[in-house]
Amino acid sequence: MTFEKNILCIGAGYVGGPTMAMIAHKCPQYKVTVVDINPDRINAWKSEDLPIYEPGLDEVVTAARERNLFFSTDIEKGIKESDIIFVSVNTPTKTFGEGAGMASDLQYWEKTARQILDNAESSKIIVEKSTLPVRTARAMERILTSRNNHIRFDVVANPEFLAEGTAIRDLENPDRILIGSRETDSGREARNEIVDIYRNWVPEEKIITSNVWSSELSKLVANAFLAQRISSINSISALCEKTQADVAEVSKAVGMDNRIGNKFLNASVGFGGSCFKKDILNLVYLCRHYGLEEVSNYWESVVRINDYQKQRFVLTILEAMFNTLAGKRICLFGFAFKADTGDTRESPAIFITKKLLDEKAVVNITDPKALENAEADLAGHNGNVSFVKDPYEAATGCDAIAVVTEWDIYRNLDYEKIFNSMRKPAFIFDGRNILDYKYLYNIGFNVYPIGKPKLTHFTKTN
Ligand SMILES: NC(=O)c1ccc[n+]([C@@H]2O[C@H](COP(=O)([O-])OP(=O)(O)OC[C@H]3O[C@@H](n4cnc5c(N)ncnc54)[C@H](O)[C@@H]3O)[C@@H](O)[C@H]2O)c1
């Protein structure tokens, strides 16, 4: 079978796998190959047990795999055969040298650029899918043109806005597709080629184009704005707890203002995930680099409030439980950084568990999809921690439950049965504000939501 285009994606992670599966699913006329240096990941993509959990992903992958969607570790062959290369490798925060803890670590990105240069035998369009500091496309171009041969490379920026947990829905029906390019003839030509791919299923008005720098920067700014809303409402949750206001009532009243809107206004234990913190810190670093100290301080405060919120949650647990957690058993409901994913990168659960273990608590962790990652995250940390699939079993004998991830299953458990299996007094700390507090209180729990008055059975005299 001959295909209209050969598309390659380098990096078979949370972004590369699902995005390419969607392109292959929607465009049977293209051949889509996804490559990675990690053979275990590639084998998992070829198997029935995909390396990541996303609702709806199995169906999309199975429909296209071996028809026009292929997974491989042969990166060199992939480069040779491709017309268009999406680069979706990881760009974590740098842990060493200049910019450590702030800037993006671009080593994986740069290796990819060199690999493309070494193996390309024909002209190609290179698509930045990873989230990158603004002006990275220039570095990519400089590497790719360093040999001065006759092969032409056009670099376009097409950042990915999917959210984990709803990736398939977001890819199938995106709010927008953004494609940035150089304003030259070949830049515009390359941009149109990428627009043509998305036109197969995305309405024209949702495909927007821009210059390459705006496109790179828009992704960082989108994540910074989303995280800022979470930190804004979380900062207010702290004030609510001091004033008997209810943060859910405040969110509702504020969110009904059309100019503000009601999304992303739920108070919680704080944001996690591989992107928000990394992308904001990257923005902070860039602003500082350009001498914009006030701007960088402003955005840095979003991360500071998030750290504060996680600390506050642990302090609430400690203070509520009579200022000692030593030997007490605490059950964490959820470890993933959000519902409907097994991803635990930067999950607040990691910080919370480590703090609880430092207080010498015994921690039971339950999660429908993230236990394997949780074990890896806590490997090497001293303390008494266990991983239990069944939430009822996990809560048995515990002094407290802390809800860390908003999985639907935790809304509808038999809390009477759970209460009866726990040590008394029994506590629930709802880090996601998803439970029915009055009901839990009536069962006998002492209930501590975020940004709402607590409900306890302790009176001033007992
Ligand atoms: N995870 C998200 O929700 C999300 C959303 C939007 C954008 N992004 C961005 O997309 C990029 C990828 O994120 P991710 O979550 O998919 O990361 P990931 O760590 O899940 O996947 C990256 C993959 O790239 C592979 N890789 C690294 N160097 C390679 C090389 N030289 N050759 C071949 N493969 C290589 C790694 O083995 C890994 O499997 C990041 O820049 C991230 O910021 C992520």
Question: Key features?
Answer:
462 residues, alpha/beta, six-stranded parallel β-sheet, 17 helices, 14% strand, elongated, binds nicotinamide-adenine-dinucleotide
Mean of residue pLDDT values: 96
> What is the C-alpha radius of gyration, as a whole number of Å?
24 Å
Spell out which ligands are present. Answer: nicotinamide-adenine-dinucleotide
Give the termini distance in whole angstroms.
Answer: 79 Å
Structural class of the secondary elements?
alpha/beta
Low-pLDDT ranges:
none
Q: Percent of residues in helical segments?
A: 40-55%
What count of helical segments does DSSP give?
Answer: 17
**Spatial shape:** elongated
What summary fits the major beta sheet?
6 strands, parallel
Biggest sheet, strands in spatial order? Answer: 3-2-1-4-5-6
Strand content: 5-15%
> What oligomeric state do the depicted chains represent?
single chain
Number of strands: 14
Protein architecture, described:
The chain has helices at 16-26, 39-46, 57-64, 75-81, 107-119, 136-144, 167-172, 185-198, 212-243, 247-255, 276-289, 293-320, 348-358, 371-378, 391-395, 415-421, 437-443; strands at 5-10, 30-35, 69-72, 84-87, 124-128, 153-157, 177-181, 207-211, 329-333, 362-366, 384-387, 400-403, 427-430, 446-448. The relative contact order is 0.08. Helix 16 links the parallel strand 12 and strand 13. The longest helix is centred in the middle third of the chain and has 32 residues, at 212-243. It has 17 helices and 14 strands. Bound molecules: nicotinamide-adenine-dinucleotide. Nicotinamide-adenine-dinucleotide (NAD) binds at residues 10-16, 35-38, 41, 75, 88-91, 108, 111-112, 130-131, 160, 162, 164, 274-275.
